[in-house]
């Protein structure tokens, strides 16, 4: 109902707070005996209910996720996910859970029974918080005055700093009081009522939040902030740390415009009477929204001289304001409705950006978000926006042949998949539970926000943008009416409904959604659908089922033939790869835009099956009306040179779903000249981007011309031009033998940027033309990737780049050139190619052995890097790029491979971006040449770094780095990460130590998954355990190692078929599926179909590695003998040793075993999948042992 | 004995003559002190001869000596003058020859910097007057070299200067602070200065370039509000006026007032009213 937070002592130096909270509650049902309150990491001293001291107990099941039972299957993520989910759900405030259980004393029970209010008062303290609240206290004495603290949030985690009902659905009013030292400012939600002078050089800030707000939306920041009242809107106050006032003024100068825009757009007043933005150092995220307050990273601030940061900062500011409407003001019913608040606020932000940055930028952004979502889904599985129904869906239907990645979750009880989609591969099963955001991978959450945005945008297309805004407006106005009514009723404390935080006896999952269905302050999928229906009369339930409650995206393959006789385009649409991860079937309308000689014609096709054919009659008779302008979709008419097109066909190009009304991947097959026409003449930036992507496959003179013309075209959107640059690089590299003229883009660059009298010298910088600025940054980077016939960077380009360095003159520029200089350093890095060493391998690289090119490069890099120590540029962009280039030089053998260089930059105290860049280099080093100490070093940072953001970012970095394709063929299992100590360490950390920091825990789960898969890591298996064949086969399925044994796969399938009849069928299914999936990315390696299995994290992994793979397979075969002998001993002679074919049988057997076991466990689910996987795993084990025996001669894989 | 260098050559010449006479007289060896003495005597004789010649010349009221003067001087010195014998002596066969002493080339008189063309004398000045001096002596002429106007060369030069500056600066810095050496055996090659910790201000307030912030409304302190004079009379929309602590500074056109915002208000004393304005 109402909550009071009174923080008595906030000590920055001691990093602690002492406080008192007072919750006013009303029991929702009589006979309530216990109250559960969410609270973590705080020390509770005393709890009273209506001034009567009461007993309480504290239990947080998330402290230790899995207990030490199950000695066999411990350390597997399968198990972990289940336990993690249960632990979180047990305390899920949405379901009435909580870590603190308070018994209501019998003498007070009459109050509860009468349904009267009662007050729970708790005294507590918090010391050295690990998460939820961050104290930034510099060690040096001069830094003491910069010390400040602020709250951080990962989903609903306010319980980390005060006891509350930590649910988005429990909204109430708040009284907030913070007693701080006199020189500090305390900023929190709501209106500052007064500031009271206290004794002892203290003062108290008193805030009152009159708008009902959920606990997770309460934030606080305390520090020596400078105050800047927005000159255009006096209700808005900006805060920054001392010394940044100028930047703050510049950064915030447009904030009032965003306010006005949103208020206009939604036809609603800003919901709060004040708004505060606080820029803090070491923020855990760029931006965290609290009601009427926003905590931003101080690194978003910039001056007028900085260009690139402006775009980023503005987006965050726009988003932060949008989240005030949808996230803070309109809260969500349940965490599964988070997609709505994320989606709508992103949508609003998008509309603002569209107005502010233009339609091209907006469409380009949408397109890139779409690609990101698709990429993620294909890698990890479909993103389900609203997982609330997952619990309820039956688990029976989950066959999921394609979901090889998914065996993890079969053991999860919820089997997250609605039955009606079970036949498709649309939804991924994840190695974490989707039911609560506390267990979801942060990457998934990020992608989910993007997908939610795309989905809201789809809704816009379905019901019209005006109507959608009306829906939003209605929600907002209902909420404000609701608030004013409750205020009028004389009840200052808004009581929505008697909300009981803890319905006794009910457990998780039952009461959660719809506990408070009528409150207009809350939004849920159901209520949103209802609202759309009332406003527009359209029923969106099907849409919600299709896109919201179900994951995955659609994937079309389009090809066509022009039929000259009938003057029709015979279009063929296929939805292949339905089994592939993240892809699902689509049924419904689909727009096809046909650009003909007489104009653009849109046709809406109804897609009903996986295969659809349509004959579209062309409007234009095949051309021959020469010299006629051709109308485009925008209505413009343009002249085109039609000489290169097919003389019979009037079709210029075809586009599928041009407005991006679906979340789809489109694979359009059309001849290269059509792509070129599309690139040259289509006005839509997304079409141009797609054309650029497609033209990479057509390295010829026409493509070159089309790209060159586009880059030079001042009318074109700058991002498209930049993308065309990198595409032209690729084409030039492919055409290297037939390339004529100077290196690609050199002419363009000189034309655009060469000075008037001597084009070979670049002009003095003038960035007032932003299009040119971005091109100026992009072209050198693209050119640096050019290679001549020897595969090295042409000397002409080399000289060109060095000249750019030499003649860079920013003295007359109004803007800083730091990003440009960074781009130049990056391009120097791009020129580096693996060294052709004349030295003995293994001999040290000495100063004398440096090549002249390397010397020149090093000269520049060391100059730039050293200069940054004295005259640093904005955000050390140059240093960041220098470190990357240095790592590249090391990696390619030009410099001694020393990691210590980067460790200087990676330590705490350096700027965040610099640290990340250095850590990136260290991770890269560790991946190829690292030793155990290096991994330990990285884990030390993850575990102990003072900046929580860094812990998170580094784990993400490692995950990212390890899941991308590795260039060298060093076995994945030989990575220094694959170590018993490391596995145990990560496990211990995520299992026991991270109850406080849910985000980092999920990060580490990601890391653990990337390293070891969902099973028990191989390196943790004892030797004694290894004799169990089924253990061996089922022990691990790591996405990293799954690929090693591509060449064996077909044989395995065969063997399986011989041995067991039912498996023949599955083998057939398997292989046919593989064919279809392999079609898009594995054409070069037809005998390795299985390697295209969607389990992989590296879709293009084997494209260039055929020989190596064969080689390694040979090694495997040899090593096999050894492993086989071992297994023979352990398996009672089931397998015959000594023959190279024996390992196949062996694998079959082992698979057989595990399958039988699995069958029992899982009731015949995922038959094929298991079979397949086990064979995989078996191979892996083989590989494992190969390597271990090769390296150490020991037969224990744990030693690898 | 320190002799002025001018005399050494003359003395050498005299010595040479003396030794030739001695040789002619039949001597083969001469001791150095003897030669010195003879030289001294010869020089003294010559000197006396010259001096008395001049005396006689001047006595006769002339400036240039005649043969008579020379003869008189010789007679005065006690020589018996026999012109015929003298002539014969001078034309004797055994007459030793002294090569003409080598003369140093005269130091070149530095030519006066001539800038521009000397003008001819104007017609009203007679031609026996000295010629006109260089024009720069009496009119202003550009003395510096014509600057390079070639764009490329300019750019080359500025960039070179800048780079040299940067290079020497970083070299200096590398000497004075700790470095990471890529090649420990060759410390002069690419020393990379170790990074120092950055405060939150460093990345945000770059030092590489100075941009003058446009000082629009520079006196607009963050807590003040611009209020043009003519609008003072009107009631401003969100100015209550009563509880505003107005620190009005009347400039010519504007006045500045504290914005009405709770964060800018003074703290309220807890019990006794003795509020002090917080910043």
UniProtKB/TrEMBL annotation, chain A:
Residues 1100-1134 have a biased composition (Basic and acidic residues). Its main location: nucleus. Residues 672-1032 form the Transcription initiation factor TFIID subunit 2 TPR repeats domain. Residues 1188-1200 have a biased composition (Low complexity). This is Transcription initiation factor TFIID subunit 2. The keyword Nucleus applies. Keywords: Nucleus, Transcription, Transcription regulation. It comes from Orchesella dallaii. Belongs to the TAF2 family. Residues 493-518, 1075-1200 are annotated as: Disordered. Residues 1143-1181 have a biased composition (Basic residues). PANTHER family: TRANSCRIPTION INITIATION FACTOR TFIID, TRANSCRIPTION INITIATION FACTOR TFIID SUBUNIT 2. Pfam families: Peptidase_M1_N (PF17900), TAF2_3rd (PF25316), TPR_TAF2_C (PF25577). Residues 552-671 form the Transcription initiation factor TFIID subunit 2 Ig-like domain. It is found in: Nucleus. Residues 44-212 form the Aminopeptidase N-like N-terminal domain.
TrEMBL record, chain B:
The keyword Magnesium does not apply. InterPro entries: BTP, Histone-fold, TAF8, TFIID_su8_C. Signal peptide: none annotated. CDD domains: HFD_TAF8 (cd22918), TAF8 (cd08049). Its main location: nucleus. Keywords: Nucleus, Transcription, Transcription regulation. Residues 7-83 form the Bromodomain associated domain. It comes from the Eukaryota. PANTHER family: TRANSCRIPTION INITIATION FACTOR TFIID SUBUNIT 8. This is Transcription initiation factor TFIID subunit 8.
């Amino acid at each position: 109902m109402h909550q009071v937070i009174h923080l008595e002592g906030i000590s920055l130096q001691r990093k602690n707070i002492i406080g008192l909270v007072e919750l006013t509650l009303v029991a929702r049902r009589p006979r309530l005996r216990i109250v559960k309150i969410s609270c973590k990491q705080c020390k509770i001293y005393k709890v009273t209910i209506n001034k009567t001291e009461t007993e309480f107990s504290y239990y947080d099941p998330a402290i230790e996720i899995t207990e030490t039972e199950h000695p066999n299957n411990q350390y597997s993520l399968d198990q972990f996910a289940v336990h993690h989910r249960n632990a979180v759900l047990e305390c899920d405030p949405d379901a009435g859970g909580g870590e603190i259980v308070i018994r209501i004393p019998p003498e007070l029970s009459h109050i509860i029974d009468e349904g009267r209010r009662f007050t729970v008062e708790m005294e507590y303290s918090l010391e050295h918080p690990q998460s939820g609240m961050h104290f930034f206290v510099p060690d040096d004495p001069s830094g003491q005055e910069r010390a400040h603290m602020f709250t951080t949030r990962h989903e609903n985690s306010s319980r980390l700093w005060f006891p509350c009902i930590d649910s988005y659905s429990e909204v109430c009013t708040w009284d907030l009081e913070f007693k701080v030292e006199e020189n500090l400012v305390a900023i929190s939600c709501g209106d500052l009522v007064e500031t009271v002078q206290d004794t002892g050089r203290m003062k108290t800030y008193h805030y009152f939040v009159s708008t009902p707000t959920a606990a997770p939306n309460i934030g606080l920041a305390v520090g020596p902030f400078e105050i800047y009242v927005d000159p255009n809107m006096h209700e808005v106050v900006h805060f920054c740390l001392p010394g940044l006032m100028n930047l703050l003024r510049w950064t915030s100068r447009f904030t009032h415009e965003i306010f006005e825009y949103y208020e206009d757009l939604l036809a609603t007043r800003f919901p709060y009477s004040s708004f505060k933005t606080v820029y803090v150092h070491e923020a855990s995220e760029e931006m965290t929204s609290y009601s009427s307050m926003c905590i931003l990273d101080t690194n978003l601030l910039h001056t007028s001289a900085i260009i690139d940061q402006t775009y980023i900062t503005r987006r965050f500011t726009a988003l932060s304001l949008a989240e005030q409407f949808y996230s803070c003001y309109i809260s969500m019913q349940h965490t599964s409705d988070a997609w709505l608040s994320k989606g709508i606020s992103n949508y609003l932000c998008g509309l603002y950006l569209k107005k502010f940055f233009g339609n091209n930028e907006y469409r380009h952004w949408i397109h890139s978000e779409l690609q990101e979502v698709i990429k993620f889904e294909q890698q990890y599985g479909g993103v389900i926006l609203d997982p609330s129904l997952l619990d309820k869906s039956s688990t029976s239907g989950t066959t999921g042949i394609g979901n090889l990645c998914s065996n993890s979750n079969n053991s999860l009880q919820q089997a997250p998949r609605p039955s009606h989609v079970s036949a498709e591969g649309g939804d991924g099963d994840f190695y974490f539970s989707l039911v609560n955001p506390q267990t979801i991978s942060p990457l998934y959450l990020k992608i989910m926000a993007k997908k939610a945005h795309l989905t809201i945008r789809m809704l816009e297309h379905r019901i019209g943008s005006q109507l959608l805004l009306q829906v939003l407006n209605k929600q907002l106005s209902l909420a404000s009416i609701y608030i004013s009514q409750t205020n009028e009723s004389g009840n200052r404390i808004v009581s929505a409904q008697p909300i009981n935080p803890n319905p006794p006896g009910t457990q998780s999952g039952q009461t959660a959604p719809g506990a408070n269905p009528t409150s207009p302050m809350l939004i849920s999928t159901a209520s949103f659908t209802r609202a759309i229906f009332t406003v527009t009369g359209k029923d969106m339930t099907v849409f919600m089922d299709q896109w919201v409650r179900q994951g995955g995206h659609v994937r079309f393959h389009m090809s066509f033939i022009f039929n000259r006789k009938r003057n029709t385009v015979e279009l063929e649409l296929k939805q292949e790869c339905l089994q592939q991860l993240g892809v699902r079937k689509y049924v419904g309308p689909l727009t096809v835009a046909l650009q003909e000689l007489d104009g653009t014609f849109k046709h809406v096709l109804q897609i009903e099956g996986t295969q659809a054919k349509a004959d579209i009659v062309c409007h234009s008779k095949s051309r021959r009306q020469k010299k006629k302008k051709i109308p485009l979709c925008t209505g413009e008419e343009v002249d085109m040179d039609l000489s290169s097109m097919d003389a019979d066909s009037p079709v210029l190009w075809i586009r599928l779903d041009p407005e991006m009304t679906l979340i789809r991947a489109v694979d359009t097959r059309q001849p290269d000249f059509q792509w070129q026409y599309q690139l040259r003449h289509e006005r839509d930036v997304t079409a141009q981007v797609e054309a650029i992507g497609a033209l990479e496959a057509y390295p010829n003179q026409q493509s070159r011309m089309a790209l060159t013309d586009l880059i030079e075209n001042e009318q074109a959107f700058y991002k498209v031009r930049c993308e065309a640059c990198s595409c032209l690089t690729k084409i030039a590299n492919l055409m290297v033998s037939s390339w004529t003229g100077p290196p690609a883009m050199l002419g363009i660059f000189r034309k655009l940027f060469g000075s008037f009298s001597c084009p070979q010298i670049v002009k003095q910088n003038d960035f007032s033309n932003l299009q040119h600025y971005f091109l100026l940054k992009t072209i050198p980077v693209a050119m640096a990737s050019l290679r001549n016939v020897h595969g090295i960077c042409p000397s002409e380009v080399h000289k060109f780049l060095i000249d750019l360095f030499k003649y860079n003159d920013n003295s007359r520029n109004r803007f800083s050139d730091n990003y440009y200089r960074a781009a130049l350093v990056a391009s120097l890095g791009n020129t580096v190619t693996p060294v052709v060493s004349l030295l003995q391998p293994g001999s040290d690289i000495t100063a004398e052995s440096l090549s002249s090119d390397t010397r020149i490069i090093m000269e520049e890099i060391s100059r730039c890097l050293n200069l940054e120590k004295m005259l640093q540029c904005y955000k050390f962009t140059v240093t960041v790029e220098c470190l990357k280039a240095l790592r590249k030089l090391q990696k390619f053998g030009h410099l001694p491979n020393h990691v210590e260089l980067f460790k200087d930059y990676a330590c705490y105290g350096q700027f965040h971006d610099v640290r990340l860049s250095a850590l990136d280099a260290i991770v890269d080093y560790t991946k190829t040449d690292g030793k155990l100490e290096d991994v330990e070093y990285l884990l030390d940072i993850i575990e102990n770094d003072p900046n929580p953001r860094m812990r998170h970012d580094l784990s993400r970095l490692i995950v990212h780095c390890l899941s991308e394709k590795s260039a060298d063929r060093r076995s994945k299992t030989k990575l220094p990460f694959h170590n018993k100590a490391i596995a145990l360490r990560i496990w211990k950390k995520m299992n026991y130590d991270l109850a406080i920091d849910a985000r980092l825990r999920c990060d580490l789960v990601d890391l653990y998954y990337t390293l070891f898969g969902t099973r028990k890591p191989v390196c943790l298996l004892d030797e004694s355990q290894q004799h169990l064949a089924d253990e061996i086969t089922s022990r691990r399925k790591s996405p990293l190692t799954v690929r090693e044994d591509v060449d064996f796969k077909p044989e395995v399938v065969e063997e399986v078929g011989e041995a067991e009849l039912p498996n023949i069928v599955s083998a057939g299914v398997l292989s046919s599926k593989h064919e279809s999936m392999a079609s898009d990315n594995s054409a070069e390696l037809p005998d390795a179909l299985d390697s295209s299995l969607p389990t992989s994290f590296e879709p293009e992994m084997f494209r260039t590695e055929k020989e190596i793979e064969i080689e390694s397979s040979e090694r495997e075969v040899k090593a096999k003998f050894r492993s086989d002998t071992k297994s023979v001993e352990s398996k009672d002679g089931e397998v015959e040793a000594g023959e190279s074919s024996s390992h196949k049988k062996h694998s079959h057997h082992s698979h057989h075993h595990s399958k039988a076991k699995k069958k029992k466990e899982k009731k015949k689910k995922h038959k094929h999948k298991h079979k397949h996987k086990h064979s995989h795993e078996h191979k892996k084990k083989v590989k494992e042992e190969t390597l271990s025996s090769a390296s150490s001669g020991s037969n224990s894989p744990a030693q690898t | 004995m320190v002799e002025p260098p001018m005399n050494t050559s003359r003395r050498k010449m005299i010595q040479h003559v003396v030794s030739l006479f001695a040789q002619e007289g039949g001597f083969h060896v001469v001791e150095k002190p003897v030669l010195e003495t003879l030289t001294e005597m010869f020089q003294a004789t010559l000197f006396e001869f010259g001096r008395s010649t001049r005396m006689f010349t001047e006595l006769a009221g002339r400036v240039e000596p005649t043969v008579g003067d020379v003869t008189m001087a010789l007679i005065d010195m006690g020589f018996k003058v026999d012109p015929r014998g003298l002539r014969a002596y001078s034309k004797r066969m055994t007459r030793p020859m002294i090569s003409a002493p080598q003369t140093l080339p005269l130091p070149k008189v530095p030519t006066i910097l001539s800038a521009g063309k000397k003008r001819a004398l104007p017609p009203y000045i007679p031609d026996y007057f000295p010629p006109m001096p260089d024009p720069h002596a009496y009119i202003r002429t550009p003395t510096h070299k014509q600057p390079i106007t070639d764009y490329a060369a300019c750019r080359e030069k500025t960039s070179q200067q800048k780079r040299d500056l940067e290079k020497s600066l970083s070299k200096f810095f590398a000497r004075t602070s700790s470095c990471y050496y890529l090649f420990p055996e060759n410390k002069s090659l690419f020393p990379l200065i170790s990074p120092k910790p950055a405060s939150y201000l460093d990345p945000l307030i770059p030092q590489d370039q100075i941009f003058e912030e446009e000082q629009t409304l520079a006196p607009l302190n963050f807590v003040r509000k611009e209020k043009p004079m003519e609008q003072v009379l009107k009631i401003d929309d969100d100015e209550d006026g009563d509880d505003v602590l107005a620190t009005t500074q009347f400039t010519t056109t504007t006045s500045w007032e504290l914005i009405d915002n709770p964060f800018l208000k003074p703290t309220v004393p807890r019990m006794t009213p003795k509020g002090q304005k917080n910043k």
